[in-house]
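Homework help board

Subject: predicted structure for assignment chain

Our instructor gave us this sequence and asked us to write out the predicted structure in token form, then describe one feature. I got the tokens but I'm not sure how to describe them. Can anyone check?
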Amino acid sequence: MILLVRNRVKHIDHWKRVFDEQEGAGMAAGLSVRHVWRSADKTDEVFFILGVEDRAMAEAYMATPEAAAVGEEAGAIDGEYWFLEDFSATKEG
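My token output:
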């Protein structure tokens, strides 16, 4: 399972610095950074994919005041996220 996230941020360089500093907290919640992109068209928009070991643990972490404080410190204006499962299994005969 992965977690796909989109954030609109105040200052992308500041957001990235805080994001990188917080990787250990996410790892403790069973999240691992897979990819990070910034929009080619909107300089205030970022997308990232996190690997998810345990959805319940990830959701619990994301609901904490500490996680909200990190978003605020990073300058996140808004965002949304989706838990996604692999659906690319091959068809059987």
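Reply (TA_rk): Your tokens look well-formed. For the description, you could write something like this. The CA atoms of residues 35 and 88 lie 19 Å apart. That's the kind of observation they're looking for.
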